[in-house]
Amino acid sequence: MSLDCIICTKPYDNGEHALFSTKCGHVMGKSCLEKWASKKDNQSRFNCPVCREFLHISDCHQIFNLPIELLKVKTDDSKDKYLNEDDILEGCFSGKLKKGRTFFMETKYTELKGNKIIHFSDTHNGYILVAGDVIYDCGDWRYEWGGDNRRSFVQIFNGTSIFYSEDFRSVPLTAVEFNKFREDVVEFCVGFENGYLMNRVLSLIENDLGIPNKSVSINGGRKIHSICFLEKKKVVYSVGECNIFSISTDTFCATKSWLRNKNVRSKGITNLSVINNCVLLGVMYGKIYVFEKDKIPYVLYCDEFQWVKSYTYDSITNKLLIFKFVPYCLWDYFETDFNEVRDKMILSREVRSISRVSKYDNEGCRREEYTTYHVQDFQNTTYCLPGNFNSTLISMKYCEKYFTHSFLPDEGNNMLQLHSVNDTFNVVGKKTIENLDQCIGIFALKKPYMPFRCGICTEAYTTIGTEHALCSTKCGHLFGKRCLEKWKNENNDNGKFNCPLCNQSGRDYYSIYNVSKELLKTTSDDGENKCLSEDDVMRRYVLGTLKEKHFFIEQGNKGRQELGNIFIKFIDAYNGFILIVGSPSIAGSRTISFLKIYDGDNIFYNKQFKSGLVTALATNKCCEDNLEFCVGFKNGIILNTVFSLSKGVHGTPHETILFNDNEEINSICYLGHNNIVYSAGDCGVYNIHVDCIHLKKSWLRNAAVKLKTITNLKVVNDSTLFGLMDNKIYVFGKNETPYEIYSEEDLLITSFEYDSVSKIMLIIASKLYDKDRLSRTLKPVLLGIKENHAYETGGCTRRTYTKCSIEKFEKDYYRFPPFSCSLPIFTRRCSEIFTYTFIPDFKNNTLGAYAVNNGFTELANGEKIDCLGSCKRIVALDKPQFFTSKMLKIPIVVVFRNDFAIYNFYTSI
After folding, report:
1. pLDDT digit string, tens, across residues 608-653
2. CB atoms within 10 A of CB 500
3. What does the alpha-carbon distance between residue 93 and residue 501 come to, in Å, rounded to a whole number?
4. Which parts of the chain are coiled coil (predicted)?
5. Domain count of the chain?
């Protein structure tokens, strides 16, 4: 959940849309809250937009110490007052640190030993790569690039500690690059003047460096100008004059030419960067060129009076940070290799955006080309810096907004400047650093993130419902629940206590619910590869150390201890509640049934049915404010139960018993609150409203068709059902003749599920080799359902449904139990629908997760689960939630023969 106003979904600010909270613990913008309250007829009272609790306007107040400054990038100059993060937090919570301030804080410093001079550098995931020369002569000497009194080196630092070091005798380095596609290892490439291209892969297993995997490619003595990684296992490099090659890092042989059809004047290409796997950018002749694979390069940007020395491409914002120069002396431009210019230059900067435009050639063929447009210059500013200087754009997307910054040294005043690219390139921060005129590069060590901690203990908050969850006083200051309770007890004065920050007196505090979870946990990563809890996932996501994109976390296994001597027959789940219907597993007890409902770890409802065999169970998934379910019995009785839910408290159950002339209840589904449809006996489908049980109506009263037992009823809309009859799936329209929508001769349909939002049907079937013998082969089938409108005689419109095959599952799972089905689980964001399902691999005891919007796309290698061979069903415990803006959390229940387990599945989108 993003930190946006729940009414208008826009970010907060420091003015009219400031952050306000109600006493029930929900936050929203001030202007939206006032507008919401003014719409009500009773001006003095209104309902909370979230929980509907009645409130007075005096029950609402501003929140002050939620770090709104993390969302806004308007900042001032600041002196070096803060020495560590605790000082920053203390200043923030005490009010000394004003909103909009920026400052630099030096965390670590290291000096290279052994007379090393850095010429190249790169960073990735907290690792720093530096490369250059080692000078032997320590006396009076003048460094000259290309001299013989040096050797080359590469060092990688993790903080201030040397992680890896290697020397190269007498061969000058000309290019280095980290593989930023790899998270599991540290991989980099080094290019040399003699044409050697070296690749190194350093394993990261339990913080052990491991043995480096080394590969070398030789390019006929031609100088390597630039290197960039095209993808996880492919590198692209420029060599010689206008030659670009790609090579796989797996084999490091069989290079492929990138420019087969080049038709430009040859020159060395520098500063290669990747737009996508078919398009590169690079500098040639002091201009930025677009190098599309197997196409003729063309100019993207050039300046009539200045030459491009280097640039940085930011893929988040599609912006170019360009460094242009005019050297102190004029030389033959076409004969000079700019990579060899190490003396100081007069540099200027420009930022431009990249876009794609459609063009037509002379033959009328359409072709898309890249172009740039002007954003902003750093006006009237030039810098005298080393010729190999480079910087970067640091961008972050938050609440659908982009925040982009850049750093530039003011060498004349030894001042490092922070520029806000969003805010017309204003200087928003400064830091004095000695010898800044020797700076050759400024890079982001890690992705930016937003720290936010408790104002009492300065520790991170934990998730809602835990000991250190986010709480607010009425004066609008935020603390952890545990700390605030302790403060209240220690400073109690006749039931009142003073706020730890502003000393305002108050009696109560309350929990805050709808705050972005990205802010709740920002402590450092514990280094383990597998996430163990939700807090662990959030911490790694915020820090940028979450390596897995799709994974499971087991939340509990409540059933295995409490349900050891039972046999589960039916299970359903909704809004965090788990309903289990079963019977004791002892002989002769199958006529005794029970119903248990779990809420988290606790059983809050337990009922036995001594004289009735349960044959159907359904939960009303249309209700949000109560829990409603139906239980059907073999003797024709239907028991409908409703629990009211208010602020986590379960009300007294309201039960209604329906009778159906001793016909066995085969299946039940809900059309709405207290409105059910059920199949009974050999051929009956009925609709009844629980409040009007005398008005039972036949669903198919005008159907002239011979019916058999109907099971697996699913609601399409208020006038259409799907159901399973005679091993075929039928459409049962209200008062219409049923018709078949799916069947296959060689498949026995076990069950199916239908998702009305994504219009996807998942069928669990088993393959029949002959009429009498059932093979043990699971065959999930995925169908798309299409609604058609036909006009009948008389002008009436009739809806019909047809199927379109999406995909059959490719894997065959043998010796499977009576597995019923896994419900397609969907969620919607804006206009996009994401649908998932889970299928057990009984052979390997692994649970697989699949995206099913366009077929079965396996998302994870599978979660190892013991005794998966007894799995009967997989259901969604609750609705999927966007755990972060790019990660979805899906809680599921895996049901076994006599127990169940709860998992959260996390997937990046």
Report:
1. 887 778 899 999 988 877 889 999 998 888 998 988 877 666 777 8
2. 19
3. 7
4. none
5. 4
